[in-house]
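Forgive a beginner's question, but would it be possible to get any protein sequence you like and the tokens describing how it folds?
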Amino acid sequence: MKSILITNVYSYKNKGDATIVLSLIQELERVFSPKNIDIQSTDFKNDINKYPNIQTLGPTLMWVVLSSNRKKNIFLKICHILLCLVGISLTLIRYKLTKNTNYIGRNQSLKKYFEMVFNSDLVIACGGGYLRTSSRSPANNLLLLITCMNFFIPKLLGKKVYLYSQSIGPIFGNFQKFLLCYVLNRVDLILVREQISYQLLTKMDIQSEFEQVADSAFIFNKLTQKSSQFQFSSPLSKEMNVGLTVRDWFENQNQQDKYEQTIAKFIDYLYRNHSAKTFYFPQVIASQFGDDDRKSANRLKKYLKNKESLIIENKDLHPKELVNFASQMDYFVGTRMHSNILSLIAQTPVIAIEYEHKTRGIMKDMGLENYVINIEELNFKSLVAKFEEITKDYKSYKEQISKNITIVNKKAELAMDLIKKSYNNENT
């Protein structure tokens, strides 16, 4: 195997994304031993030197068509999007007619995108939860289209394409359903990371082969054995330490405020009843894309009666450091799913706040569905009740982690073995 291309990477500053990519690279080296591994990232300018053994780092179509264009006025945005789509279409048509592999047009980022695809032997769409939308609006339709194009164009150019460790849905409206069915029915293998996505593919009558594995982040425990001790900005409590992730989620500001007020009231409860310190875990800090959880964490402060009870860690940490961070916590309350996975790797009991079905699905696979609270139903009483339950069940919870994490880890490793099997079958 000469060259493998990983598509649909978001940003190293989303530590869930970073963990998935680091685990994926490790698995590619274990199974394929490729000469080159290339990555297409939406944050490719900042992701330089963040991943080991990468030959080329280039842009995703998400960056070329949408993100690079975000500061322009609406008219220029529309013109840019149309020019990109026309250039892509003409390049694909010419390739079908003449096998010419050069991009038509002057856009250097699109030229780079096509060059990386043409130079690859195999294409893997990075694991994650990006095959989803929040409504049937034109903006969501466009977002799903560009996301799918990023790994579907390689298929049109004759490449083997595999979807790695995905959560799929929700989607809305007939166009989105048609688009997703059309694309998924033409890739070589779809691997989903939880049962809910598997059931959705079954209902959609997807004809491509698909299998359920596990989130590739669970493989990351093998990369954390030699991680150094994380140094907190404030001394740990001698009584109890609780890790936390929060995020902007609700479009309705009143709902977002209520969510943050509930978390703040819970932090005060922990301080008052357990002498606990709560440490914010810097999971997503991609401020350049308006995606920075530290904003939500900082807003918690204004609601707290005991402001010293919340310590906000602001550093850009490697996922190894985050696992060590979590290992020094007694408990973890996470809205970001991969902060929960990193905590489970660290053997720290978790209460997961579910904002998408991937959270419940992944916790269910760990035998921990009882410790999930839907973000729409979150309130102070339910959070306290769940926390007191977890303190009473602490020993059995830890035993459940130890029992199931090895099983889930093997399911995560199975993903790359299935890709190798599919690739070999198609090339014999």
User: Anything to note?
Assistant: The longest helix spans residues 394-426. The longest strand covers residues 160-168. The mean pLDDT is 94. The chain has two domains: 3-219+409-426, 240-408.
